[in-house]
Amino acid sequence: MKPLFLLIEILIILGVTIKTIEAEKHSKKQKGRNVTTQVSVNKVKQYLSNILEQRKPINVISKKENLLENKKNHHKLRQKGIRNKDLWKRNKDHLKKQAKNNFTDEGDQLFNMGIQILQQSKSQKQKAEAYIFFAKAADMGNLKAMEKMADALLFGNFGMQNITAAIQLYESLAKEGSYKAQNALGFLSSYGIGMEYNQAKALIYYTFGSAGGSMMSQMILGYRYLSGINVLQNCEVALSHYKKVADYIADKLEKSEGIPVEKVRLTERPENLSSNSEILDWDIYQYYKFLAERGDVQIQVSLGQLHLIGRKGLDQDYYKALYYFLKAAKAGSANAMAFIGKMYLEGNAAAPQNNATAFKYFSMAASKGNAIGLHGLGLLYFYGKGVPVNYAEALKYFQKAAEKGWPNAQFQLGFMYYSGSGVWKDYKLAFKYFYLASQSGQPLAIYYLAEMYATGTGVLRSCRTAVELYKGVCELGHWAEKFLTAYFAYKNGDIDSSLVQYALLAEMGYEVAQSNSAFILESKKAKILEKEKMYPMALLLWNRAAIQGNAFARVKIGDYHYYGYGTKKDYQTAATHYSIAANKYHSAQAMFNLGYMYEHGLGITKDIHLARRLYDMAAQTSPDAHIPVFLALMKLETVHLLQDILLFNFTMRWKWMTLDNTIGPCWDLFVIGLIVAVLIFLLRNRYG
């Protein structure tokens, strides 16, 4: 806990002291720093004193030599004096600059040490120590370290959220031209978190951020132009922004640097959320480990895959991945052999790059007819790794693997026909294979499909389709890691930290993040926004999620208009949204709500028969709707029966008078009680 407390103390100091760093200001503080810094400062002082000492005898000699000709050369001496002053000033400036450079170098070293700790650390305690180095580096004026500290303060890394301090840092960084700071300020302005809610200002920040090279700003602008959020809807501009980000992501994917994305929906039931399929619970992981040690080959391969790429909330661990694959391979698993080949082909800490070993394991897997092994051999022949380049052999292996449904092989076939590598260019065949691979979510296949739609290559040009495909690729960026950190923050009760992270992803166009942000705002547990702003902001986010095809969000919009949350009550608009959710997405909840509105004539014409039909459809669509529908139908039928009886009362009033005299004035309650008793009797007989 000591590093954490130290970090908090540093952050408090940091929020007050970080200003424009001057070398002279910090020269007094050097005594408290490490030995190497003291040495560098002493060298600077020695250099300065030496320069001054050298200049003294020069001035004396100069004066003696020119004493006799003082009057004659007065003008020349004056000019020399000016030159000497200029020289002294230049030397002084040079020394200041050198001292500042030494100070900057130390800041860079501290920042790099922090990065190294972050990359190598696995525990949160070790990662927290990295931020101590960032804080020290930031105090020395290191801009990258200041960006790290500002992000930590904004997103609440290690429980140190301080949005006011983060904004101060970002504003200081923005003046220095930091595109990350401009993107962050745009985000905060767009939500009104710690700043004035100002969409126009947010757009300016995003524009400057994208011009400076921020991929996140590019993605946000792409989404805004695609959806027409505070700008005129323009598909071509959206395409331009998304393509830049997609090109960056595709380059990473080609180097096998893809980011696995686990998107947990907070709108799921709490009991499902605690054991969400996207995240592997620790107890289940321990059980899987037990099974793997007992010799369960399938579990061994599964754990190897999870550790290989870091899925289901597990850290990427090449050593564990190789351990499980080797155990499974010894038991004869072709998949395990193929994955070992993949590890040696790509190279990592546990399995250094070795084409011969990769060829060996791919061949072993391919001999068993394994698609991954066949694809691996195809890659070796295609790129000439450990074997001569042979496109014919590569094509043969890719075709065999593609026939078995392996999406990476389908992509490679598409790429060969797209680029004309070893075959004649054939855009129709390329499109066919790219499409097949994209159906399994192969990201590079989706990227090349987007390229084809964007340029009209081999297919009719479609800006909208290209943008949607590019958007899917962009959502695989490293920023998607925030889905995991946001989920764990929510699970640990750090609502504000979770909300900020989900809100940023929502701004970038992630539908899951939009619904999660709206869900958190709706709960009113967050403290970073005023309560009166939460429902309107939640409604805005539900609306964005609904436009992207979220049926639950569409029902929520109907609820907000029905109850008047964040907007005025509007039954007609509520009925419209329920109708969309019922007809387009077959939502049982929407059918039930719409049935209720038809039953009571709320915002639409009263229609008992249509209400009955909608209730029945809801029960058929979802088993969970059976009990609510049963109760609603019983109520509807009872009320309908009473209405018929009351109508009959107008024509046969004397009979009701007899009933009043015989049974009493509360005969209607007696009838309802009788109906309930009959229902209970029937239910008991049915389940008894």
TrEMBL record:
Entry-linked InterPro entries: Sel1-like, Sel1_AlgK, TPR-like_helical_dom_sf
SUPFAM superfamilies: HCP-like
The organism's place on the tree of life at top rank: Eukaryota
Signal sequence region: 1-23
Annotated keywords: Membrane, Signal, Transmembrane, Transmembrane helix
GO biological process, one term: ERAD pathway
Segments passing through the bilayer: 667-683
Gene Ontology, cellular component aspect: cilium; endoplasmic reticulum membrane; nuclear speck
Protein family: Belongs to the sel-1 family.
Protein name: SEL1L2 adaptor subunit of SYVN1 ubiquitin ligase
Lineage per the UniProt record: Eukaryota, Metazoa, Chordata, Craniata, Vertebrata
